[in-house]
# Entry
Amino acid sequence: MDRTAGLMPARRQPPLRRLQAPGPQLRPVSHAATIACAACGRRYVADRYAAELNVCGGCGHHARVGAVQRIEQLADPGSATSLRLEVAMRDPLQFDDGVPYTDRLERARERTGLDEAFEIATAAVSGVPVVLACMDFDFLGGSLGSAAGEMFAEACECAVDESRALISVCTSGGARMQEGIASLAQMARCSAGVKAVSDARLPYISVLGDPCFGGVTASFAVQADVILAEPGARIGFAGGRVIEQATHDKLPDGFQTAEFLLAHGMLDAVVDRRDLRPTISRLLDLYTRAA
Amino acid sequence: MTTTIETTEREQAAFAAVELARHPARPRALQVIAAAFDDWTELRGDRLFADDRAVVGGPARLGGRAVMVIGQEKGTDPMTRAVHNFGMPHPEGYRKATRLMQQAEKFGMPVVCLVDTPAAYAGVGAEERGQAWAIADSLLRMLNLRTPTISLVLSEGGSGGALALAVADRVLALENAVYTVAPPETCAAILYRDAGQRARAAAALRPGVDTAHEIGLVDELVPEPPPGAHAHPAIVAAAIRGVLIRHLTELEAIPLDDLLGMRADRYRRAGG
Ligand SMILES: [Zn+2]
# Structure
């Protein structure tokens, strides 16, 4: 039996869409729009806030960043090219909870301008060729379904084919429940991708953003050579509220924050977003230019 | 306040299948090990923190050859269920499993994993000690293991906690088992914001192992005589022994490099 029958595999297309840096062209915002820091309330003009990487200059609060903006923040200006993976929508269970799952996908596509919870681009970071695989929390909570899994696997394959370092930025609630068991399988698929990158001795740097949970944390997000996390990011396997309800245990202070996990030996560093690009650049230099 | 949840016949049937998979008398890992293997010698501890009783493991003999058997154990009565934490491993359980897998590779023993867990344990200690890290590490190690591997889902393959021991050359399942991204109660809580709608979630998410078989995550379903494995433990144990020996014999004939290539390839396409 052909297990892929009826499914359209993602095929890598010749690059057409060039990502701009830093780009109001991609995320059109009104110049008049202002954004308030969720932590301290300080107001910013939208463009200025984006230029500050969505980090509040007053209190240092890190707000969420979309996948395309992530790529712009990390890539050398003008170097990023979307892999333009044309992933078909998958709905293995014809899931419908009142709103058909395919409608939810369609809406998420319209809202984010993305095909799936990942945006993948080849780029250079301080001149080092990389593949950037960035998740977008706005796309159904950054959940990992089979199309997203396919995209990450393609990202890994591209890294191996073109001898590029792999950088992923994860923000995800975990598995895509609407796809059932097929979404669970993505943890293994993404791990197989990481294995290929590792076998090719190409560096893999993982950045964990807020939030990062479930099957994403329990697979490729922590299979990297270097694991970085953003300040205050909530990271774990099961959510804190689930644990509290199930066990009636009191959660320790700062439970599941990046800082908490750093202290427990789970991360290499907690890195302020404004230091992220220089940190990754330095690591790439060390790992790719041994002599 | 209590609300009555109306369920359709289809939903009731779907949840009845989940309840069958959760039948307390279904064969557990330790029972299968005792009945289908010889000379099993338990090895304990992860050498890092503790011995997690939700995972048991050690070398045994199967049809003449030595194999490393690793199982998730749910327990068979209130006492042993508590001892084995209802089959919900902590990170220590996965680290014990990967320790034994590495040992199996060293001695050229095939690995047989018996999967039976509602989910990896969700708790403060489990998170502090890196539950996600332990699972992720097990996934990667199972892909890299240079020895034939077989996983058999006995009753409940729940979430990443099950997959961590089910990335193998052959994945088998007893036909009345379930294999799910999360238990129906959790799925209902996430999808409908109401854990009580578990029957609806079961109908929508098709948790039976036939679904996992359809998408290629499971290779073969092991038939159970009606009404199910709980009523025929000896017959089922003999069937498990037979099917494991058949697959091991096939896998042992494949050169290791080819085997690892096929395994990586298989998971590279997993789940459509
Ligand atoms: Zn602020």
Notes: The pocket of zinc ion is lined by residues A 37, 39-40, 42, 56, 58-59, 61 (CB under 6 Å).
